[in-house]
What we know:
mainly alpha, two-stranded antiparallel ribbon, 6 helices
Amino acid sequence: MALGEEYGKRFGDVKGYEKMHVTAVYNIAAIYIPLKEVLGSEETIKLLDEVWKPGALEKKAKLDRFPPRIFIALCRKIAETMFGNKAGFEREDISKDRTEVRFNIHSCPYVRIMKELGCEEACPIVCKQDEYSYGDMKSIVFERTKTTSKCCVI
Length: 154
């Protein structure tokens, strides 16, 4: 049985928005773990970062077309649903201001599942994609000041 299938069965009871994140994590792990055996951890992380970076940059180009106030409203709604407590995150809103979206993530399913699968060193692959997708946008500032785990420090 392939790793992805094995992990799919292992985490099959996860539902809702959390399922999307958990599925992404175990699919990353299913690619990362065998590659790590051949290339080593550092080279595998670099390779996967290079492979996934163009898609994240393409996403940023599309998002950058939204006027700032519309992007902020969208971001707030997406953060509440896709990165909220029902999606497996422990999230605390910091700002309800209409001109910004600020929140703290205290627990992240990516960190939790990667630790459980024994590949927490691969967390930067995911965190870096956020920076590619939202960093250096024309009209907003994306800033990650801390991480939920030492494994996400890049």
